[in-house]
Amino acid sequence: MNDWLTTILIFLPVAGALACFVLPLGEYAVASFAVLVSLVEIGFWIDSLTRFDFSRGLQFEQRGSWFDDLNVSYHVGLYGFSLWLVGLTVVVMAAAIAYAFLAGRERPRAYYGLMLMLTGAVVGVFSAQDLLLFYVMFEAMLIPLYVLLGVWGGAGRLGATFKFVAYTMAGSLLMLVSIIVLGLSQNTFDLVDAGTSSSDWIFLGFVAAFAVKAPLFPFHGWLPDAYREASPEVSAVLSGVVSKAAAYGFLRIAIAKFPGPTHDFRTPILVLAAVGLVYGSLLAFRAPDVRGVIAYSSLAQMGLITLGLFAANDLGFDGAVLQMVNHGLVSATLFLLAGAIERRTATGEFLLLGGMARGRPALATLLMTTGVIALAVPGSSAFAGEFLVLAGVFQQHWIYAVVGAVAIVLAAMYVLRLISGVLHEDVGSAVSDAARDLVPAELAIVVPLVAALLALSVWPSAISNHAFPRDRATPAVTQNFREAAP
Amino acid sequence: MSIETPTVDWLTLSPELSLLGAGAVCLMLAVLVPATWRRPLGAFFALTGFITAGVFAGIVYDRSPNGTLEIGNAITRDRLGALGAIIICGSGLLAVFVSYAHRMRNDYVAEYYALLATAGAGMCFLLQAHNLMTLFLGLEWFSISLYVICAIDMELEESLEAGLKYLIIGSFGSAALLFGSALVYGATGQLEFSRIAANADSHDALLLAGLAMMLVGLGYKASAAPFHQWTPDVYQGAPTPVTAFMSAATKATALIFILRVLRVAFPQEAHLWTIVVAVLACASLAVGNLAALVQRNVKRMLAYSSISHAGFMLIPIAANNALGARALLYYLVPYCAMSVGAFAVVAARERELRQPVTLDNLAGMGWERPFLGVAMWIFMLGFAGFPLTGGFVGKFYAFSAAYDRGWIWLMLIGIAATLVSLYYYLGVVRAMYFRSPLELQLLPAGGSPPRDVLLQIGVALALVVTVGSFFAVQPLIDLARHAATGLAF
């Protein structure tokens, strides 16, 4: 059973997707089916969580031959940090699918099928232990996202889709070059078997793909359009889950397999991450609409996570993984709440919003709670994550920690502006009395996400102490991390 | 003086003979059976011919682990030719499915199937050629069949134009090839490929000029730039099922044969022709991809896409290594399936709308015809080299071969071309799915689509091969590896 868990986690949603495409179900039937599949997926994840031994490295490993000719195999398995990211994926995807059910989407069979396919692909990215399989899953994420954005997006979706694909594929194809060169020169594509490499060019190929997908400043050109034009739940998935695939790629491939280049390129990458952190925060503060704030804050947060990763020490890694899960949950919740607000007022512009707290206690409480966690109030899980990241990056150079601390202040500014712009101030022209508070169905979707955040706030070390084995020398992946540390 | 008659190994020729037999039966049908029976019987016999030929090719593959020369050393019996014949027969089979419901008058429908089978036979023959005479014979054999079949729709001006253009430009290509062969013969005094290799002097200008002209002639057949000018017009004008067959089978034939002739007859000149082939590949990638960006007519766009794919598949030939041979032979399998499949979907749309298919009138097709829409989507993803299709593994192998040769620049050009190609391949997906009916303001197509079960079966088969080749990489690579053993890397 343990061998098959990872494979089940990847292919259960894919099978569900095929069923959605093929079975002639009605709108409610197919939506309920998709929600059911995503809940069963969460069940399998909880099962794997209980079976996982956090003192060891790669687990639930399965290896099958794909083509021996070039030593490419179907090799999947989970590390501690992958397990948490898979958990983030299945939870956010379930919330997104449930939200879509609530909001109602045209052409439901295609829609829910694609959402489930996306779930499988993202889980695949987090569990692939073969370079080519990783690439396949990484690209497989793009196919459903392309259609989800292009068909169900807003009015400007065509331009947004084009930018999204052009940016992402430019990065991905450079990664393909790197994969070919790395795999053929090592004579294996297996991530566990492959040794480290000291080639700067191969490293930069991987970094290009992940920097675009994350995105890192200055590769974020696709981000504002995509996050604004996608439907809210797809934005939630994009910023909550898909961006983490890039951070995971940094951790699992760029840093683990390239200790030398990581060391050489640490300063430029840390500088870009720090710039992105401040720049994103400033843009978030200036954004005229709810989704703009969340989108740019996502850019900032990815910068922070990258800071933690490229600090390349235990504190940084622990903090980055914790922060990945935090940010995933926070931004998914915020996007879903933004969707709820847009459904009621038909706009996300701060000019037209305001005063929604009065008479809508549930919305106000949830947005306030999430916002307070997002701005890293001491005691929140985001505070724990950011603290670890900053403490880690401090060991590289104090200046990064200073920039990071400044960014936390900026985060408070943009989150408070978001909260006051929506909930407080004068009642906006788009807010009518008919705009109700969150309905129970919406609560059922958002409350679990917020509850997860609160739980993490109480016990952040659930992740930060369980992302990597305490004895870091055990698995191959962290062996390389140790070498990467100065 | 008595002429020694060579013994004939009939098994070697069995794929050609089955296809010729099918062609002969179809021709008989054209005069012997009532008009209404010609279409189903013609299709049936052509189908049987392709299946039988494919089975025979499989037997030849199985029984010829070591290549031998047959019939006065004019013909090679080996796994390369057999694998090529299987690919051609597969494309022919799909083409018959696509052809069946094509609007064709009863007075030439039987001849159509006869020519289709004959062209297939000529291609199989060319792939087995082992001397300059059989080379030219095979080339003309299938080319003449194709010239006629392109122009078979006599009422359609474009079809006639396509036939004429293909005839003139194709003849030019054949002439170049023939002249090149003559020069090679003049330089070496040999017709047989292996003896040409043995007697070649790589500093002989006559030989090199001959080699260059042969490459030009074969470049025409593979529609590699700069010998591609006929491709868009012919692909656009010819009846769509014919285009489907040509884009798959002709290209497969030409590319496999280029690999064989260069490896067997000109191994000493490899330092020259690898560069030439690499340049042809880059030119094809550039021309095909850039020109495809601005096409609105889908057939024409696919024609440019086929030029760019000639470029992708010339990369492994230029790599001139064992990995490259495997890459080419593997890539051709999903490529042929995607190519026939994509043109089949175009044919279906054409029949439905009764006008040429453009990106504009493709709009909404994905939702109206879910099966064909998804199929087209997957074919386009395959052409663009996305995972979950064999197109991805094909590109991966082709680039790996270039890297293995040490030509990272060639790999990077291929990658850049792939990036550009996304625009027009995804453009089709965008046209089919992304525009809402409200924006389109089209008149509803109305009614049910023409019933076309055979075409749907053909598309389904193409789909199975396209996706299946992604998962079944190892078996296909094993087939390719065994087929390439005779090339002595």
Characterization of the model:
- The complex is a heterodimer of chains A (486) and B (489).
- By secondary structure, chain A is mostly helical.
- In chain A, 73% of the residues lie in helices and 3% in strands.
- Chain A has a two-stranded antiparallel sheet.
- In chain A, a hairpin with a 4-residue loop joins strand 1 and strand 2.
- In chain A, helix 8 (223-229) packs antiparallel against helix 9.
- In chain A, 63% of the residues are buried.
- Chain B is mainly α and 489 residues long.
- In chain B, 77% of the residues lie in helices and 1% in strands.
- Chain B contains 20 helices and two strands.
- Chain B has a two-stranded antiparallel sheet with strand order 1-2.
- In chain B, helix 8 runs antiparallel to helix 10 and helix 12 (298-319) runs antiparallel to helix 13.
- Chain B is globular.
- Chain B starts with 9 loop residues before the first helix and ends in a 6-residue tail after the last helix.
- Chains A and B meet through strand 1, helix 5 and helix 6 of A and helix 16, helix 17 and helix 20 of B.
Q: How would you describe this structure in keywords?
A:
heterodimer, A: 486 residues, mainly alpha, 2 strands, 73% helix, 3% strand, globular, B: 489 residues, two-stranded antiparallel sheet, 20 helices
